[in-house]
Amino acid sequence: MSTERPTDTRKVTTLRLTEMKQAGEKVSALTAYDFLTARLIDQAGIDVILVGDSASMVFAGNDTTLPMTMEEMLYHTRVVTRAVKRALVIADMPFGSYHEGADKALHNAIKLMKEGRAEAVKLEGGASICPIVERIVDAGIPVCGHIGLQPQSIHTYGTYKTRGTQPDEAQAILDNARALQDAGAFAVVVEKVPKDLAVRITASLEVPTIGIGAGGGCDGQILVTPDMLGMNRQFQPRFVRRYAKLAEDMHSAFQNYHHDVRAGDFPNEGESYTA
Fold this sequence. Notes:
The structure is a single chain. The chain has about 280 residues and is an alpha/beta fold. The protein folds into two domains: about 15-245, Alpha-Beta Barrel (TIM Barrel); about 245-275, no CATH class. It has eleven helices and eight strands. It has helices at about 15-25, 35-45, 55-60, 70-80, 100-115, 130-140, 155, 165-185, 195-205, 225-230, 245-265, and strands spanning about 25-30, 50, 90, 120, 145-150, 185-190, 210, 220-225. Strand 6, helix 9 (about 195-205) and strand 7 form a beta-alpha-beta unit.
């Protein structure tokens, strides 16, 4: 495992992501919801940090992303952006924040940029939300799209199964990707679709695609950080590679601390102060 620090210290921007696609350079992305994690991710050289509404599940313990509020997203975005120096920080627009028209969507996008200090926002959906994407982009706010499996629509789908396995749905997803690009999106997240479809989408767009559960043909990849760190023992879909086993390490550390306190071994003399 490499311990080298990243050599490219240039600030990552939306333009930089386009340049990376043109150069065939893969984009790395992870989620963050707190200061310490965001700082470590940024220092590791990750290109994009998404303040995801996945915090609803991995941070707040909900079953879906739907309960996430604008106030909660603003809080998480503020603490993440406070930590980041290099990575591009994108904030999810939570469910309900852009579904009541372009005016309210723009208002909430401005809050994430102005109060949260985000550098871009992400919306789920295809052609139907393109007028909203255009309105936000026209205001000078970069927008990242999100197609394929859309977690905010889970009650419509009824399942988290792979999307685009049938020709008609695959074509609709491809059309939605193109529509988002035409509306001004600077990048598109492609979630849980067959790898061949993700390759077609990536080849058809001038803007970069960032895959999650979409195979290796996208211009970049993103994972939910607690999942790739092995903190969630109950959740391991095929597309998640665990780069650590923090659940086991943390459980052991907590048990050892509990034992040392009960045994009177913590704190010892070296961990105590004298007058």
